[in-house]
Structures are given as structure tokens and as C-alpha cells.
Write a sequence for this structure.
């Protein structure tokens, strides 16, 4: 979907600080970070939300979470939060499936 902001990042049409890129996923720094470490991890193929990903491609779902664990390890993070917003009511504002990897500060529970 070439109207999608994240698809444009994957294609290189919009610049981003890419942290990790594989055949299946791209990870990059969030431009409006909510924590000292705030990385977005997205599938390279367009899916509107994580529910669509999990129904269509279990290998891709696994790759998204593996990338999060790999990045956390590479950054030496002792603790981190993974957040997935699905739908506008849950706070999703870019309708391309993505995980937020957040770290570097204390987080409250429950969120939001």
C-alpha cells in the first residue's frame, strides 16, 4: 500500500533510522519516542494490524517477536515493554501492523 507511511519507510521513500532489516521485517526508531528506547518493528508486507498478520503468516508473527528479543539483547536491555495497538480505539494511528519496543524508563500498570 504505497499510501502507507510504514510501507514508504520499507521501500526507502521516507527516511528512517533503520535498526534491523530482514527479508520479512524492518525495525526503526520511532520519530516521537515515548521512552529513551522506542523502536517500531513492522512486517515489510502491508497488514493493517497484528490480527491480520497472525491469521495470515505465523512465521512472520514469530519473526516480529524474535526481532524484538534480538534488538533488546543487542541494546543490552534488562527489561522492556512490547506494545501492540490494534484499532483506533486501542491507540493505533498508523494502520500497518507494528510492535513498539519501549525501554529505558519505568512503566506503570495498567497502561493508558
Amino acid at each position: 500500500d504505497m499510501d502507507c507511511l510504514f510501507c514508504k519507510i520499507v521501500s526507502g521513500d521516507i527516511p528512517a533510522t533503520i535498526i534491523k532489516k530482514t527479508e520479512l521485517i524492518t525495525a526503526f526508531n520511532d520519530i516521537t519516542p515515548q521512552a529513551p528506547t522506542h523502536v517500531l518493528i513492522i512486517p515489510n508486507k502491508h497488514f493493517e494490524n497484528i490480527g491480520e498478520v497472525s491469521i495470515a503468516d505465523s512465521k512472520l508473527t514469530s519473526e516480529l517477536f524474535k526481532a524484538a528479543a534480538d534488538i533488546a539483547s543487542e541494546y543490552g536491555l534488562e527489561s522492556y515493554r512490547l506494545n501492540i495497538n490494534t484499532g483506533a480505539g486501542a491507540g493505533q494511528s498508523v494502520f500497518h501492523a507494528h510492535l513498539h519496543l519501549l525501554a529505558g524508563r519505568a512503566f506503570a500498570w495498567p497502561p493508558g
Notes: The longest strand covers residues 37-43. Residues 41 and 85 are 13 Å apart (CA to CA). The chain has three helices and five strands.
